[in-house]
Design brief:
- The chain has 287 residues and is mainly α.
- It has 2 domains: 49-128, no CATH class; 131-282, no CATH class.
- The chain contains 11 helices and 5 strands; from the N terminus they run ααβααβααααααββαβ.
- The chain has helices at residues 16-30, 32-40, 59-70, 76-80, 113-128, 131-139, 144-157, 161-176, 184-190, 227-234, 258-275, and strands spanning 49-52, 104-107, 243-248, 251-255, 281-282.
- The strands form 2 sheets. Strands 4-3-5 form a 3-stranded antiparallel sheet, sandwiched between helices.
- α7 (144-157) packs across α10 (227-234).
- The longest helix is centred in the last third of the chain and has 18 residues, at 258-275.
- It is globular and about 70 Å long.
- The termini are far apart.
Length: 287
């Protein structure tokens, strides 16, 4: 049977596939400038890379690591310090040494030296503001900046975390007796080196970091202390020690008298002479 075709009197409803085809057709008609932003909204989020800043690193080491990670010319991170608006205490005078907190930081395509430095300084301030560290510092009459400075010495001098509390006690005991700290780590910082060999001539250098010639803490931290060093700085192990020396790896001797310390130094020297090793570290007045 034949039927006469008649156009529909009302618009038919599009299927979901039809609506999608019409939508895409409209986008292409409008041009790629409309299409690209919509596609970008569905991209897979960027997976951050990781930048590790170890405990004890000095500011120049941190700057170099940032420059390498961001593939920037050497000196870029250091130059960014002046304009990054870092939340440093007035005592720091714009120098972030000791406030570039050691941790693992996320790095993305949006990261800049300023954003990374800001994150590090903010983290340091957060750690210094924890109740245990803040209250402990106040109990010893120290500002947060002095706590960071003392902790940086502990980080540099202690062979491991187990010795941090005792090294902190040596520093506190010497400060209480108005004795120079005589820390080789501060001499190394002044001379931009890292060694266990401090010569008598080194102890006579004219530097605010020469704790053989000057009393009290150095003028700035000498590296980036971690949380364990910060905790040790404000809660030192009880004891009457004034000296220490690491005679061999894992064996640090703490002494209350110089006579006892001299015996430990003699053993330190005998071990080095017998093995030809340069391992070990002398503490206050160790030479």
């Amino acid at each position: 049977m034949r039927h006469e075709y008649r156009p529909p009197q009302r618009r038919s409803r599009l299927t979901r596939r039809g609506r999608l085809a019409l939508f895409l057709g409209t986008l292409f008609a409008l041009g790629a400038a409309v299409l690209i932003p919509i596609l970008r909204g569905g991209e897979v989020p960027e997976t951050p890379r990781r930048l590790l800043i170890p405990e004890g690193w000095r500011a120049p080491q941190v700057y170099a690591a940032i420059d390498r990670e961001l593939k920037l010319p050497p000196g870029s991170a250091k130059a960014a310090v002046a304009t990054a608006g870092l939340a440093l205490p007035a005592e720091a005078k714009g120098n972030p040494e000791g406030y570039l907190f050691p941790a693992t930081y996320p790095v993305t395509s949006q990261s800049t030296p300023a954003t990374l430095l800001t994150h590090m300084v903010r983290t340091a301030n957060q750690k210094l503001a924890t109740q245990a560290v803040a209250d402990g510092g106040k109990a010893h009459g120290m500002t947060p900046y002095q706590t960071a400075t003392l902790a940086s010495i502990i980080e540099a001098e202690a062979e491991g975390r187990a010795d941090m509390g005792k090294v902190a006690r040596v520093v506190h005991n010497r400060l209480a007796k108005s004795m120079p700290l005589q820390m080789d780590s501060t001499i190394n910082y002044a001379l931009n080196r890292s060694t266990v060999d401090t010569r008598p001539s080194d102890t006579r250098i004219d530097s605010p970091f020469n704790t053989y010639a000057r009393q009290g803490l150095p003028v700035t931290p000498i590296g980036s202390p971690g949380l364990q060093a910060l905790s040790a700085a404000v809660a030192p192990t009880p004891g009457d020690w004034l000296f220490f020396v690491t005679v061999r790896p894992g064996d640090t001797r703490f002494s209350a008298t110089y006579e006892q310390h001299r015996k430990h130094i003699a053993e330190f020297n005998r071990i080095r002479a017998g093995t030809g090793s340069r391992t070990g570290q002398a503490g206050p007045a160790g030479k």
